[in-house]
Design brief:
Tscrpt_reg_HTH_GntR; WH-like_DNA-bd_sf; 10 helices; 225 residues; two-stranded antiparallel sheet; elongated; 2 domains; transcription; 4% strand; Arc Repressor Mutant, subunit A; single chain; mainly alpha; Four Helix Bundle (Hemerythrin (Met), subunit A)
Length: 225
């Protein structure tokens, strides 16, 4: 039996906006309904709509002009099925990767300095579950996400955690079927262990070095996909 695909609300809203553009044959420069009209049309909250628009802006499908409205940017940036073209998704992932380097890299550094014994034990359990899933050939995307989220939480900086959480929908795109291939980043698996080692040894320099090496590999994989 196939697994049921999980979607975040903002992803569904983004798909509906793309469908609206297609069904109404909108062209570049055409104006979409207002934010208020879109929330009423799709029956969602403003936060979900904002997240959807952020994503669509990131992949050059729409542009949002404050005080003016929401406009179609490029009707050729999505397929008739509503799927974003690979090249645009690559651009989006690379943009988020830059943000990850800055914000999550700092979280790794702080985690190596501030993590407590209980948090370290939990991170170790996550790694063990990661290994079990990987060895059994099962999907590891969500446990991978849990690993990174736990590091962010153990950074001990609630403001940094809040900033990263505020863009969680975009961030999670890295782990939810990136470029249509859940196994795309399997090559980074060993770095989860070396990052853990750096954090467990309270060695910020080693932990962040391993993290940035992992980001380098991800960047190369995305560019050459």
């Amino acid at each position: 039996m196939p697994k049921i695909q999980k979607y975040n609300v903002h992803e569904l809203v983004a798909q509906e906006i793309q469908r609206y553009i297609e069904e109404h044959a909108l062209k570049e420069g055409d104006k979409l309904p207002s934010a208020g009209e879109l929330t009423a049309m799709f029956g969602v909250g403003r936060s979900s709509l904002r997240e959807a628009l952020r994503y669509l802006e990131a992949v050059d499908i729409v542009r949002v002009e404050n005080g003016k409205g929401i406009f179609v940017r490029d009707v050729d940036t999505f397929r008739f099925t509503g799927k974003v073209k690979v090249e645009n998704e690559k651009k989006f992932l690379l943009s988020i990767l830059d943000v990850r380097r800055a914000l999550e890299g700092k979280a790794v550094e702080l985690s190596a300095r501030n993590i407590n014994a209980n948090q370290l034990k939990e991170l170790e359990k996550i790694l063990q579950e990661y290994k079990r899933l990987k060895d059994s050939g099962k999907d590891t995307s969500q446990i991978d996400l849990a690993f990174h989220q736990h590091i962010i939480k153990s950074s001990g900086n609630p403001i940094l955690e809040s900033v990263i959480n505020s863009m969680s929908g975009l961030y999670q795109k890295f782990f939810n079927d990136p470029l249509g291939e859940k196994r795309l980043f399997d090559e980074t698996y060993p770095f989860h262990h070396t990052i853990y080692e750096g954090i467990s040894q309270h060695d910020p320099e080693r932990a962040t070095s391993e993290f940035h090496q992992m980001m380098d590999i991800i960047e190369k994989l995305i560019k050459t996909y």
